[in-house]
Amino acid sequence: ALEAFQRAQAWRTTTSPDPVGRSRKVATSESQVVREVLFMLQGLDSTLFDRKGSAVTAFQLTNLAWETHRALMNTFSTYGRQLRILRAFASRPERVPHLQALQDCISRRLQVLDGKLSEIQVRLASPTDEVIISLIAIRSELLPWLEPLFVLSNIIAQVQDGSRAETFRYLELMFDEAGIAQLTGKLDTYRFLAEVFVECFNVYLRPIRQWMDQGTLLPGNEVFFITEPASDVSMCDTWQDRFELRKLTDGSLHAPKFLKPAVSRIYNAGKTIVVLRLLGKQSAVLSPQTEAEPPLDYSAICPPGFELAPFADMFGAAFNRWIQSKYRKTSTTLKNALFNDWGLGSSLDALQALFLMSDGAAAGSFCENLFGRMDAATAWHDRYGLTAAGSEAFASLVDINRLTISVDTAGRQMSVKQATQSVKHSLPHVQIGYKLPWPVQMIVTRDSMGHYQAVFTFQLQIKRALHVLHAPKILDNLQTDGQRWDERALFYSSRNKLLWFCTTLQTYLATLVLEPVWRKMRLDLQAADDMDGMIAVHAGAMKQVVDEACLGSRLAPIHAAVLDVLDLALMLEDGRRSQQAAAASGSSQPGDGVAHRAALRKISAEFDRSLRFVTGGLRSVARASSTAQSAKWDTLADMLQTGELADGRA
Hints:
By secondary structure, the protein is mostly helical. It has 25 helices and 6 strands. Strand 1, helix 2 and strand 2 (59-61) form a beta-alpha-beta unit. Helix 7 runs parallel beside helix 9 (260-278) and helix 19 (446-469) packs antiparallel against helix 21. The protein is elongated, with a radius of gyration of 41 Å.
């Protein structure tokens, strides 16, 4: 028996030189080659293939040309090398959970392939009927089993050889290859890859599920795309600064590409749970789900009857249903808590009353007190007095315990004369502080508060100009106007132009900017899906107000020209008071009237020049853009131009 065995295996080592001394190819039967090929595909040692999977050139199939033999053996050698990649990957230690799941998927499918190879060996070793041994037939029989594994092998080789070593690259490539296999009609490969992808993705989904359900992160999890760089931030900065998305070195998101459309909702869902916990809504956070979580297995993602639907679309629809089952309830709970428990609506009403001056009587009362202090040359910047004046004016509209009004350091260092000479000098230093509840501060960001302050300052400047323009009373000077009618006519003409300009600005802001934008913002806040939506709605509305009010950087020269016109009102009133003071003290000189008329003509000419610049600039900018703001800029130019034409006709 031993001798028979040795004779049967002699082909493995026997070589005889040819007549010129060169070694001959060892003639090998097809049955022996088939057996060796099957051993090699199973990952076992074989004589015809070395440990790297390459065909040994010392052997040649009987009755087959060398070139044909070599091509056939190289084909099987390629198959073996690709399977070797899978076996090596499945056997190496892994700590990343979804890669462990991928290893398990590969091991189970290699086990199925090994079972198929064993069936072929049994059929050939112990035939029950006539059997034709053919390498070509074996290749054709194995190819449907091998092709899906080869695609998986190429994915693993591509990740291992590439410069990017992110573990989720396996998921990205499987997702893409499944779609390609479906498009090319390779349905068996498509199903194979889709099933492997779904199994691995469900493991990758575990930290996402924990984040969305509990608002917690696994410590030291470098795979997940959300991190908590700072846990000690203030409560009002929880939404913006406590968590962040992990980025790669090139700035792209540390997450699979197919997840990027849903990343913002995943990110916000966990932050919503965290904020609800801080708000004391643990019952809403920890309550059991009222509806079962939609499944994300293969049958749910690729249901029967949808074989022609793109895999990416079916996955996106199924994953969107899964996210919505967790996201909708928590977002609605948080929005209701902000409106009902923390007074988001009343806080916005307070900001509207204080900064946007929606209540004319209250705003007028405060402004009269402030301007009276400035005109009386007293300590107008005393914050206690200003806060008291604001509290008295807005007592019925806001919580005065949250209100402070002050002047910053630069404004306090300014002299009274400097403060009253121009609307540009002192009024921008008047600051309103209103302490919002910390949950509301997540919606009303610091940038938005800057926009509020800019609108408040602009309206304060307009009201300052109107205040000084309304100081002179026509009836008070009725007896003396006739004595210097040329001078008084110039004064009243300039005053009329400036009054029209200021009231037009005020009307434009109140009717075309503040009220429409604010009303739409309140409706959009109620319709927003989540916190990010609410923040975006509020920030967008305040940015729109700033742009339409000509306070943006694009209209900075026009805004400066508007302030120049408002300063003309202060110059006009300053000249009138100087004339009155000189007349009352008896120190007026004969040439004072001429100088005063020249100053009035200069004010009128400067007004006309600035008005042309403002209206022309507004129309030019409006023509250069096609936004909603541009239409309002054009309307404002028409409103200001109407006053100029009316004055000219008069």
